[in-house]
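Case study 2.
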Amino acid sequence: MRVIQGTAAARAAIIEANQGRAFSANAPVEAQVKAICEAIQLRGDAALLEFTRQFDCPDLEIEQIRVSRAEIDAAFDALPAAAIRALERAARNIETFHTRQTVPDWSFTSTDGALLGQRYMPIERVGLYAPNARAAYPSTVLMLAVPARVAGVPHIALATPASRDGLAHPTILAAAKIAGIEEIYKIGGAVAMAAFAYGTATVAKVDKIVGPANIYGTLAKKYLYGIVGIDGLYGPSDAAIVADEGANPAQIAADLIAQAEHGADSFVCLLTASPAIARETQAQVTAQIASSPRAAILLESLQNGLICRVDTLDDACELCDLVAAEHVEIWSHDAFALSARIGSAGAIFLNTPVPLGDYIAGPSHALPTGATARFASGVGIDTFLKRTSLVGAPRAAIAGLADDLETLALLEDLPGHAAAVRRAAG
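Prediction:
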């Protein structure tokens, strides 16, 4: 990891790092994604099967794309009891947290006499995506499916790539069963996104796609947005840690490594005003990498990581906002108070390692990456809801508003608007 001394130098290093973290165009991949999407739109199942055989399993038949109930049950039954117990506990915690997020409908009568309100309705059909490449992520299935179910989505489908043997990953299927998902397709990346967006004879069209994917799947979501809703464009995992002089360097190092091991493109950053914490954390990172089975990935990933020894703890909080990380950890006796000073973070962990949130605490781990926490939020109940406004005005209220409305309509050269209101006012 690069060690940066001083707030000004740290600010410059973070700005530079943010440019590399930002989700950006990739012309060659975008061209491939466009071709895949257009082919599936035009040729449906034929293209879907062609690409799935090319990218995932060469022997797959179209009848095998939809996972059977028997496959789901077999995957669940083969899972060790301890794994089922852990997944079920995680599902309960996720449900408990997201039940509290429920947004109520409301209405009131304005001073002009109109009934105004807001109503939330679940999206009818949602397609979830669970990767299965470098690793399978059953936790992602729960983190997406449980909030969707709590939100009241009536139809939830899941896409996940087939392995070379033509089977979906058994732990993903087991997690899907725990989450109550029965509609599962063995398709991946841009193929899955296009099939969900356009629909085919085998894959039912959805209204919104939710979940992280590789660069092909992510750029497909970007290309398809407008045809279908999306939750966001997720990139490599990232984390920032704010620590004061009371923190434990060994713990900080372990947490930096935990996020860096996601892949060589991950980004991690420590912000501290303590020279000792900066120095000892660097030493601990070196020592802990030496015993890690993912040392090769860590060495590459941590080349881009930063240890920033800033001038004050206030500076650490300010620069943490600049990082706008997917995950923020605060290690301090005043962690809760410091958290109120950080406005751009996917999730904030108070004297708590990120993996607790990744797996089992309750909030969804599908969070904004690449500094997009400046304007985006993680998956929650509102991801799966549509908001509709209600406006109801009796004739007297319409008449009372008509003069000013006509003035505004004529400013925009839309006399028909004013005429419609005059007619309603009687």
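The chain has a mean pLDDT of 96.
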